[in-house]
Amino acid sequence: MEEKTIIYLALEFGVKPQYIGSILRAYNNIRLDDNWSNVRSDRNLLIDLLYLYGVKSGSSVTIKRAFKITQKHFGKGTRPTPSKWYDNHGHLVV
Questions:
Q1: 10 Å Cβ neighbour count for 21?
Q2: How far is residue 58 from each of residues 13, 16, 61, 62, measured CA to CA in Å?
Q3: Domain ranges of the chain
Q4: Helices marked H in 1-94
Q5: Residues 6+ away with beta carbon under 8 Å from 29
Q6: What is the mean pLDDT of residues 3-8?
Q7: CA–CA gap between residue 67 and residue 89 (Å, rounded)
Q8: What average pLDDT does the segment 21-33 reach?
Q9: d(CA 78, CA 37)
């Protein structure tokens, strides 16, 4: 996904700008982890991280709102489900 798309989505999710670098680091750390089993596609992992950091930023983003944002942007909505991987890889979220 292009950097400008990530920034646009981050702003839509209500992520504070200072967290964008953390999202990208966490995304790469998780994807490149030897124990990562691709329980989520790359795009869905990024959406999960955008959601987590949106909540951390104090945004009022909800799963329903995240679905609508991704539906508007990609033509297909995605529900964030970090619970599928967070127990095993949450320590990589900086």
A1: 10
A2: 10, 9, 9, 11
A3: 3-88
A4: 3-12, 20-31, 42-56, 63-74, 86-89
A5: 92, 94
A6: 92
A7: 23
A8: 95
A9: 19
φ/ψ region of 71 (left if φ > 0, alpha if ψ in -120 to 50, else beta) reads: alpha
Q: How much is the pTM?
A: 0.94
Long-range contacts of 81-87 (CB under 8 A, 24+ apart): 81/40, 81/44, 81/48, 82/48, 82/49, 82/51, 82/52, 84/39, 84/40, 85/30, 85/36, 85/39, 85/40, 85/45, 85/48
Rounded to an integer, what distance in angstroms lies between the CA atom of residue 93 and that of residue 87?
A: 11
d(CA 37, CA 41): 10
For the stretch 65-93, pLDDT in tens is: 999 999 999 999 999 999 999 999 999 99
Distance CA 3, CA 50 (A): 13
